[in-house]
Amino acid sequence: HPEDSIVDVAGRKFGGKKLQVIAGPCSVETQEQVTEIAKDVKAAGATLMRGGAFKPRTSPYSFQGLKEKGLDFLKNARAATGLPIVTEIMSPYMVERFVEDVDLIARNMQNFDLLKELGKTNKPILLKRGLAATIEEWLMAAEYIMSEGNENVILCERGIRTFETYTRNTLDVSAIPAVKRLSHLPVVVDPSHAAGMWWMVEPLAKAAVAVGADGLLIEVHNDPEAAWCDGAQSLKPDRFAKLMGDLRGIANIVGREL
């Protein structure tokens, strides 16, 4: 595949000169919350909106998301702002609903049956690297989707598990140039999930742009202290706006646009 792929998500192109920034809360909580944050991140320059309606969590006792109600809240926020929706799917039984309602479907890489079902659609898929997956295993998970006919795949680096315990995971910045060499697929970076601490999100986001990422996935919350999950890794809207300004300068240096 001699040319790099460009994946179009509702007019936002991943893999071209322009960087795409996906921003929003870890979890959809209320209609007012998700719409307000969507308006804030759009004003700062974000091009897509993220929000978890279905939440895969380590503990079965943690908040699991508002599910279908959360999807409805995301759709209403899209109608209010025009920002395409990015959210995660967990079950093959929800594929039809997600294809109809979601612009970019996010998915962890280990559920191969679900990956095959998503491969039968033409919907763009954001494939998140597993916390213990090698780059080869990550790319092979992408092949599960593409082998069924759907080549609209965007890879997402979000940290891998190492011996270090200070951060939630270790952001593998080297994976971005490696994937660029081994694959034609665009790759975005999620510094929020990797670090688990809001004050590390900004420097890691800058590093990701500097090494060639095609976009970022950043958690933003208007009241992180009261967030239903992962508030500690969420930026407030004003800090996100400042980060976007800094990223524009770095993007210009490496020949990209934000």
Overview of this structure, please?
It is a single chain. With 258 residues, the chain is of the alpha/beta class. Helix content is 38%, strand content 16%. The chain is built from nine helices and ten strands. It has helices spanning 31-44, 68-81, 95-101, 112-119, 135-146, 175-182, 191-195, 198-210, 237-253, and strands at residues 7-9, 12-14, 20-24, 48-50, 85-88, 104-108, 125-128, 153-157, 187-189, 215-219. Strands 3-4-5-6-7-8-9-10 form an eight-stranded parallel barrel, surrounded by six helices. The protein has a two-stranded antiparallel sheet with strand order 1-2. The relative contact order is 0.17.
Describe the structure concisely for a colleague:
This protein is α/β, with parallel strands linked by helices and 258 residues long. Helix content is 38%, strand content 16%.
